[in-house]
Amino acid sequence: MLLLPSANRVYANASPELARAELAVFSDSVLGGALTDAEVTNRSGVPYLEFTAERLTDEATTFLSQLSAIYALFEADGSLLKPVELRRLDRYDDDLITIQKYQGKTNEQFTKLLLNVTMMSSAFAPELASRRLAVFDPLCGRGTTLNQALMYGCDAAGLDADRRDFDAYAAFIKTWLQRKRIKHHADYDGPVRRDGKVIGRRLQLSLSATKEEQKAGLVQRLDVVCADTTRAAEFFRPDAFDLIVTDAPYGVQHGSRTAAGLARRPQDLLTAAVPVWAQLLRPGGAVGISWNTLVAPREQAAAILAAAGLEPLDSGPYLQFRHRVDQAIVRDVLVARKPGRAGG
Ligand SMILES: C[S@@+](CC[C@H](N)C(=O)[O-])C[C@H]1O[C@@H](n2cnc3c(N)ncnc32)[C@H](O)[C@@H]1O
């Protein structure tokens, strides 16, 4: 596997090791552990991630094609490399993911890694290409996770307390859908009232990648709410989502808003919010969170997830996602499963 050249800029020197950990999660989850001996190699000065596999079925190639850092895949025959055609699931032009630029955006390649690792850790991983999974980002900012989920053909729901983020994302997605002439319909766009009071704002859209799909009633749903994340259960029903994927505030660019005001520590926000998010997750589903370990240690984040009845995955490749982003941020990924479904 040849890594995307941009991966180096995003992760500095950590990109091959992160790709190796992501590959290991895929192998264990949907490939029956069939990929072995993964190692970072160097061919004529270019780094590759090389691994052994008996034979790659089309299905296996489809899964590998979704790896967040994959640029090209080859079958190695001695010193010769034979290209293997990738089978990407991408349903839309990739500017859906790349156009928006703003301070505090979670890097898109990392967002894909987080979504992938969470998906592969859920009981629903084998269904990625065959069912419309429902993905929720409860701190969605301007929608990086939502856009990646839409790319995969998932339903996407998001929530953020910041009105500027909500407005910017709503404006972006509406313009983008129009400009790309993608068939869509606004199901709701406006304030949400309860007992006469406005408790948030909401944008609900249905979209279809092609006219044929629209005719056949195949639609993806996008549902974005502006409200405090601890109130998520007022907007979404229990067991609504297969996956919850979120990049928590870093205590640098964004603070974490809690009832007590703007806190620097994301653990206060997570303590209040994770039990609410856990209710919205279907048994067999998984939660994936990334955060800054310089402000909250991994054990603390794992304890918060466990206290909400989730099962943190804390061994093997799951311990290999920690990487430095800049001087103030050392990011890590923590995934936990919701028990209760056979095989989940
Ligand atoms: C690291 S950013 C996520 C960025 C997002 N992934 C993106 O690429 O746009 C964390 C987000 O958490 C939001 N946030 C912090 N406290 C919150 C709360 N109590 N309820 C809802 N959102 C909150 C912030 O507004 C911020 O957008």
Describe the protein in words.
The model has no long low-confidence stretch (mean pLDDT 93). This protein is of the alpha+beta class. The protein is built from ten helices and 17 strands. Strands 6, 7, 8, 9, 10, 11, 14, 15, 16 and 17 form a ten-stranded mixed beta sheet that branches. A hairpin with a 2-residue loop joins strand 12 and strand 13 (261-263). The chain is globular. It binds S-adenosylmethionine. S-adenosylmethionine (SAM) binds at residues 104-106, 139-142, 144-145, 160-162, 165, 228-229, 247, 249-250, 254, 256-257, 269. S-adenosylmethionine binds next to helix 6 and strand 12.
What is the gist of this entry?
The chain is α+β, with helices and mostly antiparallel strands. The chain has ten helices and 17 strands.
Helix content: 25-40%
Shape: globular
Order of helices and strands: EHHEEHEEHHEHEHEEHEEEEHEHEEE
Residue-averaged pLDDT: 93
Chart the SSEs and their pairings.
Elements (H helix, E strand, L loop, with lengths): L1 E2 L1 H7 L3 H16 L5 E8 L2 E7 L5 H8 L4 E8 L2 E5 L10 H4 L9 H14 L12 E4 L6 H8 L3 E6 L2 H17 L3 E12 L2 E12 L2 H5 L4 E7 L14 E7 L8 E3 L2 E3 L2 H15 E12 L5 H10 L3 E2 L10 E4 L2 E9 L7
Parallel strand pairs: 6-7, 6-11, 7-10, 11-14
Antiparallel strand pairs: 1-4, 2-3, 4-5, 8-9, 9-10, 12-13, 14-17, 15-17, 16-17
The site of S-adenosylmethionine has 22 residues, from helix 6 and strand 12.
